[in-house]
Amino acid sequence: MKKRKTRTYKVVPEAVDCPSGTLARDLGLPWHHAGTPRILAGRCEWLALPELGIRCLKAKLDTGAKTSCLHAAEIDIDEAAGRVRFVTADHFGLPVTCEAAMVKRSRVRSSTGRARRRVFIETEACLAGGFRRRILLSLADRAVMKCPMLLGREALAGFFLVDPQGAHLLGGIRTLTERDEP
């Protein structure tokens, strides 16, 4: 049997002086193949959820979590209309009342190993620098967590490499309000 030659690749971070949305377009993202260029993101990044009225939020990027999750309290489900209302808070601690279409209900196993049934919604996430993507979010009480939002690997796949030592590599809070037109 012929022995296969194994290859080892090295990723070298390179500072780029442009917003993440521009870089994604320049790289031709989305990419669906292994080994193609990706945007380097830190363990925590700033994002906005404009469809929900959330202008600024700190999200933890977690490649170990399959789905993304948003802190939600006072969850009220209207089965007949297929909608859900809930209260969350932005980065500044201000309460934000949100309403969205319920996409599905599914069991999610938390990091503690406990499985619970959660409501899922779909919304657009705008990361610092202008990168935008529609993502699926489950709603759960994350009040005791440092970050009110968890961005899982389904939302990250094909676009990002995560540097666990870095934080806010895509840009600061101010870059959330900058509009990066196509």
Share of helical residues: under 10%
Q: Unreliable runs, pLDDT <50, ≥5 residues?
A: none
Give me the strand/helix succession.
HEEEEEEEEEEHE
Give the class from helix and strand content and strand pairing. mainly beta
Q: What would you give as the CATH superfamily?
A: Acid Proteases
Tell me the CATH architecture. Answer: Beta Barrel
Mean pLDDT: 84
Oligomer category: single chain
Question: Given the structure, what is the number of helices?
Answer: 2
Structure commentary:
It is built from 2 helices and 11 strands, in the order αββββββββββαβ. It is mainly β. The protein has a single domain, classed as Cathepsin D, subunit A, domain 1 (Beta Barrel). The strands form 2 sheets. The chain has a 6-stranded mixed β-barrel with strand order 2-3-10-4-9-8. Strand 8 and strand 9 (132-140) form a beta hairpin. The termini are far apart. The mean pLDDT is 84.
Which helices and strands, and how do they pair?
Layout: H1 20-27, E1 39-42, E2 44-49, E3 54-61, E4 68-71, E5 73-78, E6 83-89, E7 95-109, E8 115-127, E9 132-140, E10 149-151, H2 153-156, E11 160-163
Parallel strand pairs: 1-11, 3-10, 4-9
Antiparallel strand pairs: 2-3, 2-8, 4-10, 5-6, 6-7, 7-8, 8-9
